[in-house]
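User: Please fill in residues for this 199-position structure.
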């Protein structure tokens, strides 16, 4: 965790590992409220979906021409998440205070293509924090907890895709130690009357 005056921003301790539902508690020295990071369950999905939808809407506004979520995307995603929660290669965590869900993160264990050396790495597919709790370390804490899960399973590094048009997200990932590796390029194909039979 990033250091603040007098040391780290919080104390991060493992409390239990019952039935595969790890529970983390993080105490922020700047805030007396308790924030818990725990494994997500099917009961959390209805609270996670609006956060996912907000994230999708934000990117759709930033990339009007290229980022186009489907009208029924939230329904599809909610159903997919319910399945991911049962996948041993997936870790979905939520941050909560009291009965309120503050944010979530989803990560996957992956392996590169067979042409590369066989390693296990972590991939972050989703992360979002409720608007009024942003810039308070919740996203960082979620990522720290997910990194702990990755490490325990032998992952050697973590990767993610970050929108170029989203400077806030870019800044967040750099603040937690991530760096540029490859650019994800884009080329729009002009419509034409040509068909494959003319090539």
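Assistant: Residues filled in for all 199 positions:
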């Amino acid at each position: 965790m990033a250091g603040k005056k007098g040391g780290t921003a919080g104390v991060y301790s493992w409390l239990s590992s019952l039935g595969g539902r790890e529970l983390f508690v993080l105490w922020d020295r700047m805030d007396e409220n308790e924030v818990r990071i725990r494994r997500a369950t099917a009961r959390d999905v209805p609270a996670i979906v609006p956060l996912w939808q907000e994230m999708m809407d934000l990117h759709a506004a930033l990339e009007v021409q290229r980022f186009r979520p489907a009208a029924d995307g939230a329904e599809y995603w909610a159903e997919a998440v319910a399945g991911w929660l049962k996948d041993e290669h997936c870790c979905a965590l939520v941050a909560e205070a009291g009965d309120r869900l503050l944010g979530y993160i989803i990560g996957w264990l992956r392996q590169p293509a067979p042409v590369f050396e066989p390693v296990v790495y972590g991939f972050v597919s989703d992360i979002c924090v409720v608007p009024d709790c942003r810039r308070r370390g919740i996203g960082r804490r979620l990522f720290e907890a997910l990194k702990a899960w990755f490490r325990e399973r032998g992952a050697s590094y973590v990767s993610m895709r970050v929108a170029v048009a989203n400077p806030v997200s870019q800044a967040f990932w750099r603040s937690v130690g991530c760096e540029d590796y490859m650019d994800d390029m884009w080329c729009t194909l002009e419509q034409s009357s040509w068909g494959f039979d003319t090539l």
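For context: The radius of gyration is 19 Å.
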